[in-house]
Design brief:
By secondary structure, the protein is α/β, with parallel strands linked by helices. The protein has 15 helices and 17 strands. It has a domain of about 230 residues: TIM Barrel (Alpha-Beta Barrel). About 40% of the residues lie in helices and about 20% in strands. This is Amidohydrolase family protein.
Length: about 425
Amino acid sequence: MLLPTSRALAQTVTIDNVTIVDVSSGRLQANKSIVVGGKRIARIEDASVATRATATIDGTGMFVIPGLWDMHVHAYFTNDTSRFHTTNDVMFPLFIVNGVTGVRDLGSNLDATLAARDSVAAHQLIGPRMLVSGPMIDGPTTRYAAAIKVTTGDEARAAVRMLKARGVDLIKTQTLVPKDAYFALADEAARIGIPFEGHVPREITGLEAVRAGQRSFEHMIGVTDTNTKLIAALAQNMVWQCPTVINSVGTSSDFANDPGIPYWLRSAVDGWRATAKTQAALPDSAARAANQRATRRLALVKQLYDAKIPLLAGTDAPAGYDLVPGASLHRELQLFVRAGLTPLQALQTATLNPARYFGKTDSWGTIEPGKVADLVLLARNPLVDIANTRQVVAVVADGRYYSPRELDRMRVRIMELVAK
């Protein structure tokens, strides 16, 4: 959704008499007034008669958290330009209405994702803040449209240089990158000063990826509960993990109870419905095996957390089963709690940890004066129940205020678009 010029400017916003959730400590700061000026938090003060008089919204009984991040998405996972409007008109607004004010895009059409990143930053397009890889770097037999094929080290180096020159924020590796090309990619990325992250390729071990300087592992590829040497190396080198648990443990019952379904494309939902029907018809032995795999995945998440390996919340939306953009992030946080994290620890994976990951704790991740105004007003306390992150009342994204009424209008418009 495009913003008219008159609405592209950040506003002065006051959220009055609200409880601030300090995601660093878990402390609650009650009866506070948050004043946003431009794109940043101008001040935080005790709520009073004076602050009530200038309030944009009364936060009495509500809780405010930093804007959420989905650290693994694919906004333009195609080169078919006729489909890009779906991202702009449906996916990006869906992130906002779900309180997702930032995303890390790990594989998209280069021109489209750079244009969107810059348009969102200029408040010309409704959507989350974006840090992007552009197309993934993969091997010569890749099945992905949004990928650059490399076979040799020279080709990998050239791809890294081209992407850096175009202005991407990071490099994304895929599964089929040949071994020599991978190490050349890692060397070139270090030489020109751009981080690389993504899949651990099939020809590479997890330990080799750690030693090569890969900043994050996606989907916990190459990590097992018995590989204690790798787990120790991940912890020692602070190699981040973005498990995307939701993309591997979804069930037919999850689909049936997913509140995000009415807000996504009918063609995709019909495919998911067929998958759910197939899952539901599987014999009990298959269902038990799937549950055991899910249990092992969740146990591995907790094992990594206990080993002090930093975690990031990401979903792979919309490139998988039952992954509605925005809504799926709330389910990922619930899965983290199911794995054994506390609600605070889960919340940190989508707020404080992304700021740490990007080296931006001076601007993102917590609610403090001087920081960028990415805020989500919730009806209920997420530290009591992580599912309360779904209870979005209002959103401030990069200083731009989305009122309850505006969020409702956006939801209605999204439902109209996906029904066509």
